[in-house]
Amino acid sequence: MPDDFNEIVRCIMANAGRPPPNWKSRPFENRIVRNKTEPSLPTRDSLGNPIRYMEYDTRAHVAGVNRGQTRLVIGTDRSVYLTRDHYQAFTRLY
After folding, report:
1. Bridge partner residues of 93 (DSSP)
2. Of the candidates 83, 78, 70, which has an alpha carbon nearest to the alpha carbon of residue 30?
3. Rounded Cα–Cα distance for residues 11 and 63 (Å)
4. What is the pLDDT of residue 1?
5. What is the pLDDT of residues 39-92, one digit of tens each?
6. Residues near 78 by Cβ (< 8 Å), separated by ≥ 6?
7. How many CB atoms lie within 10 A of CB 80?
8. CB burial class (10 A; 0-12, 13-18, 19+) of residue 66?
9. 26-48, pLDDT tens digit by residue?
10. Burial of 8: CB neighbours in 10 Å, binned 0-12, 13-18, 19+
11. Where do the domains of the chain lie, and which CATH numbers do they carry?
12. What is the pLDDT of residue 2?
């Protein structure tokens, strides 16, 4: 994983799930988007507890600039996924 993603994840984890200032985040759900099905991330951890996810941009928001397709998705079980194609495929980082 590139160092910049490591730094973003460390910052988010150190701030109780809050992203750096001027970065976008929101709850992530496994759902149908624009008639496409997002790949399903695990919904429960190894103990059977539900996992909730938040998605994070990988760069600061700048008005008028496209946010791009790359996102980090972090679960309440501390799992971290990267998608470079706006949820069409995921790579588990942690």
Report:
1. none
2. 83
3. 22
4. 46
5. 679 989 999 999 999 999 988 888 899 988 999 999 999 999 999 998 888 999
6. 13, 94
7. 20
8. exposed
9. 999 876 565 566 567 998 999 99
10. buried
11. 3-92 (3.10.450.30)
12. 52
> Alpha carbon of 33 to those of 3, 6, 79: distances in Å?
30, 28, 22
DSSP string, 27-91: EE---EETTEEPPPPPSB-TTS-B--EEEEESS---TTS---S-EEEEETTS-EEEESSTTS--E
57 near 24, Cβ under 8 Å?
A: yes
Element of type H or E holding 17: none
pLDDT of residue 22: 83
SS3 state of residue 25: strand
Distances (CA, A) of 6 to 11, 12, 76: 9, 10, 17
Residues 6+ apart with CB under 8 A from 37: none
CB 50 within 8 A of CB 44: yes
